[in-house]
Amino acid sequence: MIRASWSGSVTSWLLVVALAGCSGGDDGGGQAGAGAQAGAGGGAPAAEPASAGQGEPAAAPEPTPEPEAPAEAAPTVTELSAQNAPADHGSWVDLLHTVRTTVAGTAFRDDPAQLAHMYDGDLLTAWNSATLPAGDDAPRSLGVRLPAGVRVHAIDLTAGFTKLRPQGDLFTQNLRIRRLRVRHPGGEVLVTLDPESRELQRIPVEGAGGDWQLELLEWVPGSNANWRELCISELRVWGEADAAAPRASAPIAVVGTLPSEAVTQALAAADAAGGDNADDLGGEDDSDALAPAPAAVLTQREGLHATRMELAPEMDGRTPLDPRTTYSRTADHQVYCYFELANPEQTPTTVTLAWEDVNGQGRGAPTQIQVPGNRRFINYRYTSVEWRRPGTYFCVVRHEDTELARIAMTVTP
Protein backbone atom coordinates (compact mmCIF):
# COMPACT_ATOMS: atom_id res chain seq x y z
CA MET A 1 0.00 0.00 0.00
CA ILE A 2 1.27 3.53 -0.80
CA ARG A 3 1.09 6.21 1.87
CA ALA A 4 2.05 9.90 1.96
CA SER A 5 4.77 10.77 4.42
CA TRP A 6 4.43 14.08 6.30
CA SER A 7 6.79 16.05 8.50
CA GLY A 8 6.89 19.53 10.01
CA SER A 9 4.33 21.64 11.86
CA VAL A 10 0.75 21.68 10.56
CA THR A 11 0.35 25.28 11.85
CA SER A 12 3.06 26.82 9.68
CA TRP A 13 3.64 25.04 6.42
CA LEU A 14 3.62 21.54 4.88
CA LEU A 15 6.49 19.79 3.25
CA VAL A 16 5.46 17.28 0.63
CA VAL A 17 7.51 14.15 0.32
CA ALA A 18 7.08 12.00 -2.79
CA LEU A 19 7.05 8.24 -2.34
CA ALA A 20 8.34 5.81 -4.92
CA GLY A 21 9.47 2.18 -5.30
CA CYS A 22 7.20 0.48 -2.67
CA SER A 23 6.35 -3.20 -2.68
CA GLY A 24 3.40 -4.13 -4.81
CA GLY A 25 1.90 -6.90 -2.70
CA ASP A 26 1.62 -10.67 -2.75
CA ASP A 27 2.39 -11.07 -6.43
CA GLY A 28 5.89 -9.72 -5.88
CA GLY A 29 5.67 -7.11 -8.70
CA GLY A 30 7.18 -3.64 -8.14
CA GLN A 31 4.81 -0.61 -8.53
CA ALA A 32 5.46 3.15 -8.25
CA GLY A 33 3.16 5.09 -5.88
CA ALA A 34 1.69 8.56 -6.63
CA GLY A 35 2.80 11.08 -4.01
CA ALA A 36 0.21 13.31 -2.27
CA GLN A 37 0.79 17.04 -2.85
CA ALA A 38 -0.34 20.29 -1.18
CA GLY A 39 -0.51 23.80 -2.62
CA ALA A 40 1.95 26.47 -1.51
CA GLY A 41 -0.78 28.45 0.12
CA GLY A 42 -1.83 25.61 2.38
CA GLY A 43 -4.84 23.30 2.27
CA ALA A 44 -5.76 19.85 3.37
CA PRO A 45 -3.47 16.98 2.60
CA ALA A 46 -4.46 14.50 -0.05
CA ALA A 47 -6.64 11.68 1.19
CA GLU A 48 -5.16 8.25 1.87
CA PRO A 49 -5.94 5.63 -0.76
CA ALA A 50 -8.91 3.58 0.30
CA SER A 51 -8.11 0.36 2.08
CA ALA A 52 -9.72 -2.02 4.51
CA GLY A 53 -7.27 -0.93 7.19
CA GLN A 54 -7.42 2.83 6.68
CA GLY A 55 -5.97 4.57 9.67
CA GLU A 56 -4.35 1.31 10.94
CA PRO A 57 -0.80 0.04 10.32
CA ALA A 58 -0.53 -2.58 7.59
CA ALA A 59 -0.85 -6.07 9.05
CA ALA A 60 2.33 -8.15 8.91
CA PRO A 61 1.97 -11.39 6.94
CA GLU A 62 1.52 -14.54 8.98
CA PRO A 63 4.88 -16.34 9.39
CA THR A 64 5.17 -19.59 7.52
CA PRO A 65 5.25 -22.38 10.10
CA GLU A 66 8.40 -24.46 10.07
CA PRO A 67 7.82 -28.07 9.01
CA GLU A 68 7.69 -30.45 11.93
CA ALA A 69 10.55 -32.90 12.20
CA PRO A 70 9.39 -36.40 11.32
CA ALA A 71 8.83 -38.52 14.38
CA GLU A 72 11.35 -41.29 14.96
CA ALA A 73 10.09 -44.64 13.86
CA ALA A 74 8.98 -46.77 16.76
CA PRO A 75 10.81 -50.08 17.18
CA THR A 76 9.16 -52.92 15.33
CA VAL A 77 7.63 -55.37 17.79
CA THR A 78 6.49 -58.78 16.59
CA GLU A 79 5.36 -61.93 18.35
CA LEU A 80 5.83 -65.47 17.10
CA SER A 81 6.33 -69.10 18.01
CA ALA A 82 9.68 -70.62 17.12
CA GLN A 83 9.80 -73.60 14.78
CA ASN A 84 12.33 -76.40 14.43
CA ALA A 85 15.42 -75.03 12.69
CA PRO A 86 15.95 -76.29 9.13
CA ALA A 87 19.16 -78.08 8.25
CA ASP A 88 19.76 -76.00 5.10
CA HIS A 89 20.90 -72.42 5.73
CA GLY A 90 21.61 -71.50 2.12
CA SER A 91 24.28 -68.82 1.84
CA TRP A 92 23.93 -67.71 5.46
CA VAL A 93 26.85 -68.08 7.86
CA ASP A 94 26.94 -68.48 11.62
CA LEU A 95 28.08 -64.99 12.56
CA LEU A 96 29.40 -66.18 15.95
CA HIS A 97 32.06 -68.15 14.08
CA THR A 98 32.62 -65.76 11.18
CA VAL A 99 32.98 -62.20 12.48
CA ARG A 100 34.28 -60.62 15.67
CA THR A 101 31.58 -60.95 18.33
CA THR A 102 31.14 -60.84 22.10
CA VAL A 103 28.76 -62.99 24.14
CA ALA A 104 27.97 -62.00 27.73
CA GLY A 105 25.91 -63.54 30.52
CA THR A 106 26.04 -65.03 33.98
CA ALA A 107 27.67 -68.41 34.54
CA PHE A 108 27.32 -71.28 36.98
CA ARG A 109 29.77 -70.72 39.84
CA ASP A 110 31.07 -67.77 37.77
CA ASP A 111 32.93 -70.26 35.56
CA PRO A 112 33.83 -68.44 32.32
CA ALA A 113 34.01 -71.73 30.41
CA GLN A 114 30.23 -72.10 30.76
CA LEU A 115 29.52 -69.47 28.13
CA ALA A 116 31.69 -71.15 25.52
CA HIS A 117 29.55 -74.31 25.80
CA MET A 118 26.70 -72.33 24.25
CA TYR A 119 28.40 -72.00 20.86
CA ASP A 120 30.84 -74.94 20.72
CA GLY A 121 28.75 -76.89 18.19
CA ASP A 122 28.13 -79.70 20.68
CA LEU A 123 24.56 -80.42 21.80
CA LEU A 124 25.94 -82.57 24.63
CA THR A 125 27.35 -79.51 26.41
CA ALA A 126 25.43 -76.48 27.63
CA TRP A 127 25.68 -73.03 29.14
CA ASN A 128 24.43 -73.02 32.73
CA SER A 129 23.49 -69.64 34.17
CA ALA A 130 24.23 -68.50 37.68
CA THR A 131 21.99 -70.34 40.15
CA LEU A 132 18.60 -68.65 40.56
CA PRO A 133 17.57 -67.96 44.16
CA ALA A 134 14.55 -70.00 45.24
CA GLY A 135 11.36 -68.26 44.17
CA ASP A 136 13.18 -65.74 41.96
CA ASP A 137 11.58 -65.69 38.52
CA ALA A 138 12.87 -62.29 37.34
CA PRO A 139 14.03 -62.26 33.69
CA ARG A 140 17.67 -63.05 32.92
CA SER A 141 19.58 -61.79 29.90
CA LEU A 142 22.29 -62.78 27.47
CA GLY A 143 24.07 -60.16 25.37
CA VAL A 144 25.52 -60.56 21.88
CA ARG A 145 27.59 -57.78 20.30
CA LEU A 146 27.87 -57.89 16.50
CA PRO A 147 30.10 -55.63 14.39
CA ALA A 148 29.02 -53.22 11.69
CA GLY A 149 28.68 -54.73 8.25
CA VAL A 150 26.52 -57.72 9.18
CA ARG A 151 22.87 -58.56 8.64
CA VAL A 152 21.07 -61.03 10.89
CA HIS A 153 18.36 -63.24 9.39
CA ALA A 154 17.65 -65.81 12.12
CA ILE A 155 18.65 -67.08 15.55
CA ASP A 156 18.64 -70.77 16.48
CA LEU A 157 18.79 -72.02 20.07
CA THR A 158 17.70 -74.88 22.28
CA ALA A 159 15.21 -74.53 25.12
CA GLY A 160 17.49 -76.32 27.57
CA PHE A 161 20.29 -78.84 28.16
CA THR A 162 19.62 -81.53 25.56
CA LYS A 163 21.96 -84.24 26.87
CA LEU A 164 20.52 -87.63 27.83
CA ARG A 165 22.83 -89.70 30.04
CA PRO A 166 22.44 -93.08 31.78
CA GLN A 167 22.20 -91.42 35.20
CA GLY A 168 19.30 -89.24 34.10
CA ASP A 169 17.87 -86.93 31.45
CA LEU A 170 19.49 -83.50 31.80
CA PHE A 171 16.81 -82.00 29.56
CA THR A 172 13.86 -82.87 31.78
CA GLN A 173 15.77 -82.48 35.05
CA ASN A 174 16.78 -78.86 34.34
CA LEU A 175 14.82 -75.66 33.80
CA ARG A 176 13.65 -75.19 30.20
CA ILE A 177 12.99 -71.84 28.52
CA ARG A 178 9.43 -71.22 27.35
CA ARG A 179 9.40 -67.53 26.44
CA LEU A 180 12.01 -64.90 25.60
CA ARG A 181 12.37 -61.46 24.07
CA VAL A 182 14.99 -60.63 21.44
CA ARG A 183 15.89 -56.94 21.47
CA HIS A 184 18.00 -55.58 18.64
CA PRO A 185 18.76 -52.24 16.96
CA GLY A 186 15.43 -51.23 15.45
CA GLY A 187 13.04 -53.69 17.01
CA GLU A 188 12.20 -56.59 19.25
CA VAL A 189 10.63 -60.02 18.93
CA LEU A 190 8.60 -61.84 21.58
CA VAL A 191 9.15 -65.56 21.13
CA THR A 192 7.46 -68.67 22.48
CA LEU A 193 9.65 -71.79 22.52
CA ASP A 194 8.51 -75.39 22.83
CA PRO A 195 9.95 -76.46 26.20
CA GLU A 196 9.32 -80.12 25.33
CA SER A 197 11.51 -80.05 22.20
CA ARG A 198 15.23 -80.88 22.32
CA GLU A 199 15.72 -79.58 18.77
CA LEU A 200 17.27 -76.30 17.75
CA GLN A 201 14.39 -73.84 17.40
CA ARG A 202 14.47 -70.99 14.89
CA ILE A 203 13.60 -67.35 15.51
CA PRO A 204 13.27 -65.45 12.21
CA VAL A 205 14.47 -61.91 12.85
CA GLU A 206 16.00 -59.21 10.65
CA GLY A 207 18.50 -56.75 12.07
CA ALA A 208 21.88 -55.08 11.70
CA GLY A 209 25.04 -55.15 13.75
CA GLY A 210 25.09 -53.73 17.25
CA ASP A 211 24.15 -54.96 20.70
CA TRP A 212 21.51 -57.69 20.81
CA GLN A 213 19.81 -58.90 23.97
CA LEU A 214 18.14 -62.25 24.60
CA GLU A 215 15.91 -61.67 27.60
CA LEU A 216 14.74 -64.98 29.09
CA LEU A 217 11.25 -64.29 30.43
CA GLU A 218 9.63 -67.59 31.39
CA TRP A 219 10.74 -71.16 31.98
CA VAL A 220 9.27 -74.44 33.14
CA PRO A 221 10.67 -76.28 36.17
CA GLY A 222 12.73 -79.42 35.87
CA SER A 223 12.22 -82.64 37.78
CA ASN A 224 15.27 -81.94 39.95
CA ALA A 225 14.20 -79.07 42.21
CA ASN A 226 17.79 -78.53 43.35
CA TRP A 227 18.90 -77.52 39.86
CA ARG A 228 17.96 -73.88 39.41
CA GLU A 229 20.09 -72.86 36.44
CA LEU A 230 18.87 -71.80 33.00
CA CYS A 231 20.48 -73.86 30.24
CA ILE A 232 21.09 -73.52 26.50
CA SER A 233 23.00 -76.25 24.67
CA GLU A 234 23.51 -74.25 21.48
CA LEU A 235 23.05 -70.69 20.22
CA ARG A 236 23.60 -69.79 16.57
CA VAL A 237 23.17 -66.43 14.85
CA TRP A 238 22.62 -66.78 11.10
CA GLY A 239 23.17 -63.99 8.63
CA GLU A 240 25.49 -62.38 6.12
CA ALA A 241 28.67 -60.36 6.56
CA ASP A 242 30.33 -57.75 4.37
CA ALA A 243 33.95 -58.26 3.45
CA ALA A 244 34.88 -55.29 5.66
CA ALA A 245 33.41 -56.84 8.84
CA PRO A 246 36.26 -57.97 11.15
CA ARG A 247 36.75 -61.74 11.12
CA ALA A 248 37.08 -64.15 14.05
CA SER A 249 36.56 -67.88 14.51
CA ALA A 250 34.70 -67.69 17.84
CA PRO A 251 33.23 -65.07 20.18
CA ILE A 252 34.80 -63.39 23.15
CA ALA A 253 32.93 -64.64 26.22
CA VAL A 254 32.36 -62.22 29.10
CA VAL A 255 30.91 -63.24 32.47
CA GLY A 256 28.52 -60.41 33.31
CA THR A 257 27.11 -57.85 30.89
CA LEU A 258 28.46 -56.57 27.60
CA PRO A 259 31.43 -54.32 28.41
CA SER A 260 31.10 -50.65 27.59
CA GLU A 261 32.94 -49.65 24.43
CA ALA A 262 33.85 -46.47 26.31
CA VAL A 263 36.48 -48.46 28.22
CA THR A 264 38.32 -49.26 25.03
CA GLN A 265 37.93 -45.71 23.74
CA ALA A 266 39.24 -44.22 26.99
CA LEU A 267 42.35 -46.38 26.97
CA ALA A 268 42.98 -45.60 23.32
CA ALA A 269 42.61 -41.89 24.08
CA ALA A 270 45.11 -42.21 26.91
CA ASP A 271 47.57 -43.80 24.51
CA ALA A 272 47.12 -40.98 22.02
CA ALA A 273 47.82 -38.50 24.81
CA GLY A 274 51.05 -40.25 25.71
CA GLY A 275 49.81 -42.51 28.50
CA ASP A 276 52.03 -45.22 29.92
CA ASN A 277 51.93 -48.65 28.29
CA ALA A 278 54.16 -51.57 29.05
CA ASP A 279 54.72 -55.22 28.38
CA ASP A 280 57.28 -57.63 29.69
CA LEU A 281 59.73 -56.38 27.07
CA GLY A 282 59.40 -52.76 28.16
CA GLY A 283 58.09 -51.45 24.84
CA GLU A 284 55.06 -49.37 23.93
CA ASP A 285 51.89 -50.93 22.65
CA ASP A 286 49.98 -50.04 19.50
CA SER A 287 46.79 -47.98 19.70
CA ASP A 288 44.62 -50.85 18.48
CA ALA A 289 45.95 -53.47 20.86
CA LEU A 290 42.73 -53.65 22.83
CA ALA A 291 40.87 -55.23 19.92
CA PRO A 292 39.55 -58.52 21.31
CA ALA A 293 40.83 -61.79 19.90
CA PRO A 294 38.62 -64.79 19.11
CA ALA A 295 37.97 -67.91 21.20
CA ALA A 296 38.93 -66.50 24.60
CA VAL A 297 36.79 -66.37 27.73
CA LEU A 298 37.28 -63.09 29.61
CA THR A 299 35.92 -62.25 33.05
CA GLN A 300 34.40 -58.79 33.37
CA ARG A 301 35.39 -57.06 36.59
CA GLU A 302 36.41 -53.71 38.03
CA GLY A 303 40.10 -52.89 38.19
CA LEU A 304 42.62 -55.24 36.58
CA HIS A 305 40.99 -57.29 33.81
CA ALA A 306 41.88 -59.09 30.59
CA THR A 307 41.09 -57.50 27.24
CA ARG A 308 42.60 -60.02 24.85
CA MET A 309 43.91 -63.58 24.76
CA GLU A 310 44.92 -65.94 21.98
CA LEU A 311 47.14 -68.89 21.12
CA ALA A 312 49.70 -69.01 18.32
CA PRO A 313 52.51 -71.35 17.22
CA GLU A 314 54.91 -68.43 16.68
CA MET A 315 55.48 -64.83 17.76
CA ASP A 316 56.87 -61.95 15.74
CA GLY A 317 57.98 -59.63 18.51
CA ARG A 318 54.69 -59.07 20.31
CA THR A 319 52.48 -60.15 17.40
CA PRO A 320 50.99 -63.67 17.43
CA LEU A 321 51.42 -65.36 14.05
CA ASP A 322 48.76 -67.72 12.66
CA PRO A 323 46.60 -67.70 15.81
CA ARG A 324 44.59 -70.92 16.22
CA THR A 325 43.37 -73.30 18.90
CA THR A 326 44.22 -76.74 17.42
CA TYR A 327 47.76 -78.14 17.51
CA SER A 328 49.34 -81.40 16.38
CA ARG A 329 51.90 -83.31 18.45
CA THR A 330 53.79 -84.18 15.29
CA ALA A 331 53.53 -80.92 13.35
CA ASP A 332 53.70 -78.30 16.12
CA HIS A 333 56.56 -78.02 18.60
CA GLN A 334 55.17 -75.35 20.91
CA VAL A 335 52.27 -72.98 21.49
CA TYR A 336 52.36 -69.42 22.84
CA CYS A 337 49.66 -68.00 25.09
CA TYR A 338 49.43 -64.25 24.45
CA PHE A 339 47.35 -61.98 26.69
CA GLU A 340 46.69 -58.30 27.34
CA LEU A 341 45.50 -56.69 30.56
CA ALA A 342 43.92 -53.32 31.30
CA ASN A 343 45.03 -51.83 34.61
CA PRO A 344 42.94 -48.64 34.98
CA GLU A 345 44.10 -47.99 38.56
CA GLN A 346 47.74 -48.40 37.47
CA THR A 347 48.51 -50.54 40.51
CA PRO A 348 51.60 -52.81 40.43
CA THR A 349 50.62 -56.40 41.10
CA THR A 350 51.26 -60.04 40.17
CA VAL A 351 49.31 -62.48 38.00
CA THR A 352 49.84 -66.17 37.29
CA LEU A 353 49.68 -68.14 34.06
CA ALA A 354 48.99 -71.88 34.09
CA TRP A 355 48.52 -74.61 31.49
CA GLU A 356 45.77 -76.94 32.75
CA ASP A 357 43.86 -79.99 31.59
CA VAL A 358 40.07 -80.34 31.73
CA ASN A 359 40.34 -81.31 35.41
CA GLY A 360 42.21 -78.13 36.29
CA GLN A 361 45.49 -79.96 36.80
CA GLY A 362 48.76 -78.56 35.51
CA ARG A 363 52.33 -79.76 35.18
CA GLY A 364 54.32 -77.78 37.71
CA ALA A 365 53.49 -74.56 39.51
CA PRO A 366 51.87 -71.62 37.68
CA THR A 367 54.23 -68.97 36.32
CA GLN A 368 54.37 -65.76 38.38
CA ILE A 369 54.29 -62.62 36.20
CA GLN A 370 54.89 -59.11 37.54
CA VAL A 371 52.50 -56.43 36.28
CA PRO A 372 53.84 -52.84 36.51
CA GLY A 373 51.70 -49.82 37.38
CA ASN A 374 50.74 -48.96 33.81
CA ARG A 375 47.39 -48.74 32.07
CA ARG A 376 48.11 -51.70 29.83
CA PHE A 377 50.21 -54.82 30.10
CA ILE A 378 51.18 -57.36 27.43
CA ASN A 379 52.80 -60.73 28.05
CA TYR A 380 53.08 -64.22 26.61
CA ARG A 381 54.42 -67.62 27.64
CA TYR A 382 54.83 -70.87 25.74
CA THR A 383 54.58 -74.59 26.40
CA SER A 384 55.61 -77.70 24.49
CA VAL A 385 53.03 -79.60 22.46
CA GLU A 386 55.05 -82.72 21.65
CA TRP A 387 54.84 -84.33 25.09
CA ARG A 388 51.14 -83.68 25.66
CA ARG A 389 48.58 -86.40 25.19
CA PRO A 390 45.78 -85.70 22.71
CA GLY A 391 42.96 -83.83 24.40
CA THR A 392 41.82 -80.40 25.58
CA TYR A 393 43.99 -78.02 27.60
CA PHE A 394 43.62 -74.45 28.81
CA CYS A 395 45.86 -71.45 29.21
CA VAL A 396 44.55 -69.65 32.31
CA VAL A 397 45.57 -66.25 33.72
CA ARG A 398 44.58 -65.44 37.31
CA HIS A 399 44.93 -62.51 39.67
CA GLU A 400 45.05 -63.78 43.24
CA ASP A 401 42.00 -66.11 43.41
CA THR A 402 40.15 -64.56 40.46
CA GLU A 403 40.32 -65.97 36.97
CA LEU A 404 40.90 -63.18 34.44
CA ALA A 405 40.91 -65.16 31.20
CA ARG A 406 41.22 -68.61 29.70
CA ILE A 407 41.45 -70.10 26.24
CA ALA A 408 41.05 -73.72 25.18
CA MET A 409 43.60 -75.64 23.12
CA THR A 410 42.97 -78.95 21.36
CA VAL A 411 45.97 -81.27 20.91
CA THR A 412 45.71 -83.91 18.18
CA PRO A 413 48.05 -86.86 17.46
Written description of the protein model:
The chain is mainly β and about 425 residues long. The chain is about 5% helix and about 40% strand. It has three helices and 28 strands. The chain has helices at about 115, 170-175, 260-270; strands at about 5, 15, 75-80, 85, 95, 100-105, 125-130, 140-155, 165, 170, 175-185, 185-190, 200-220, 230, 235-240, 250-255, 280, 295-300, 305-310, 315, 320, 325-330, 335-340, 350-355, 365-370, 375-385, 390-400, 400-410. The strands form six sheets. It has a 16-stranded mixed sheet that branches. A hairpin with a 2-residue loop joins β11 (about 175-185) and β12. The model is unreliable at about 1-55 and about 260-295 (pLDDT under 50).
CATH superfamily of the largest domain: Galactose-binding domain-like
**Low-pLDDT segments, ≥5 res:** 1-56, 262-294
Give the termini separation: 101 Å
**Residue-averaged pLDDT, rounded?**
80
User: How large is the radius of gyration?
Assistant: 36 Å
What percent strand? 35-45%
Number of helices: 3
Domain module count: 3
CATH architecture heading of the largest domain: Sandwich
Brief overview, please?
Helices cover 5% and strands 40% of the residues.
Write the layout of secondary structure elements.
Blueprint: E1 5-7, E2 15-17, E3 76-81, E4 83-84, E5 93-94, E6 102-105, H1 113-116, E7 127-128, E8 140-157, E9 164-165, E10 168-169, H2 170-173, E11 176-184, E12 187-192, E13 201-220, E14 231-232, E15 235-241, E16 252-255, H3 261-272, E17 278-279, E18 296-299, E19 305-312, E20 314-316, E21 319-321, E22 326-328, E23 334-342, E24 349-357, E25 367-371, E26 376-384, E27 391-399, E28 402-412
Parallel strand pairs: 3-12, 6-16, 16-18, 17-26, 22-28
Antiparallel strand pairs: 1-2, 4-13, 5-15, 6-8, 7-14, 8-13, 8-15, 9-10, 11-12, 11-13, 18-28, 19-23, 20-21, 23-26, 24-25, 24-27, 27-28
